[in-house]
Amino acid sequence: MEALNSLFSVGFATALTMSNLLWALIGCTLGTAIGVLPGIGPAATVALLLPITSRIDPTGALIMLAGVYYGAMFGGSTTSILLNTPGEAGSIVSALEGNKMARAGRGGPALSTAAIGSFLAGTIATVLLTLLAPIVADLALKLGPAENFAIMVLAFVAVSAVVGDIPQKGFVSLFVGLAIGMIGIEEQSGQARFTLGVLELTDGIDIVVIAMGLFAVGETLYTATYENRLQARVEGIGKSIWMTKSDWRRSWKPWLRGTLIGFPFGTIPAGGTEMPTFLSYSAEKKLAEHPEEFGKGAIEGVAGPEAANNAAVTGTLVPLLTLGIPTSATAAIMLSAFQQYNITPGPLLFDTNPDLVWGLIASLYIGNVMLLILNLPLVGIWIQLLRIPRPLLYGGIVVLATMGAYALRQSWFDLMLLYIVGLMGFAMKRFDIPIVPLIVGLILGPMAEKHFRRAMTISQGDATVFLTRPVSLAILSLAVLLLVGPPLLRSWRKMRRPA
């Protein structure tokens, strides 16, 4: 009840101001456009916007970035359905059935079930966020440095072992991120470390430059090099964009099931949007009244995954706001936006910055309504974006990244670093090394070190403090299980397999 009082008395009072409504509209519009354009994605867009948001008040900036994040999920379905080219990873599954519907002249109903399902799932997930976030924050306040360090170890293991096909590549990425995060002056001793005598590195490497290099420059170089050759035909909407009674009857249950599948995955490290959308698709295929239509344009195969996609995105805000732990690449970059304002997301955020956190949550309700209006009646405008020449698009992204990096400190060193990191991001993408562990290690590494030092100071140097505290031991045990469980399970399956 207290959460609802805070939402209405503080949240909507903050989110409904003219300036914050404008930032929400800008974020939703930009996010939809980014979702429609294939090969960019919300992570690169949020990274590009970081230099701009540093000059905006924190609440408005985070409302806009959140609008970009979940707006991209709405827009990604348009490209998947009409072009058969997902604009975002979470929209991959929607292309399986959505594009078949578009080819059969039912692109309009496919877009409608995607937009309405996204709205419904986003709203339900935001209600869950409203109710759960304060509870999780209260529980987190009872955790000490040992437990907080254990949670971050679990996040490191989860994003490294689960993301990608080969866990070793994930850990390589993680250790690179941890190493970069250690560069600069060490807080306790005041000594510079890993600076190689370069004066510009004494303050550390700016997360904004790293984010723009990896996502804006690296991803753009990769997309322009390897994916720009793909040719696809834009399908038409069809006779009408509205759903029939049969479409409504077949969609409402997948919307609800997709929401219940997607939200929990968003709250766990490395949950992502790909896994819940595939699980939703599989569930709908098994539960459908007409399973024979799957592969030929089943509307359930669009409704469920799109709901799961948007519910998962909202779910990422639970650990981000309550524990300060990002569970996706975009959430990690949003965490760096908090750090730009010297705001630390975590359990104290609800007490120290209630206007910001409740205003952000209230903006999600408002943004969902905005996105429904933007995506259904204005779908014809978004289709026109697909006709923008790719070379102009990619060139513009690199130019914006260059201007943003230089605007931070007017330093040639930041520009050089931007392109070095961009080439590194290109190489990581080329050799299938996940980027998310690097970003998580870079941001959470210094925080984990701080909690580790505090725990060791309190225990007077006794490292067993992490094993003697029950909660810390349970979390570390889960991390070990997550690390050794999959290899052991694969070995056991091989042993049971007949010769």
TrEMBL record:
Annotated DUF112 domain residues: 21-439
Domain of life: Bacteria
Record key words, sorted: Membrane, Transmembrane, Transmembrane helix
Protein name: Tripartite tricarboxylate transporter permease
Keyword Acyltransferase listed: no
TM region(s), chain numbering: 20-50, 62-83, 110-136, 148-164, 317-338, 358-379, 391-409, 415-445, 466-489
Glycosyltransferase as UniProt keyword: no
InterPro entries: DUF112_TM
Organism (species): Uliginosibacterium silvisoli
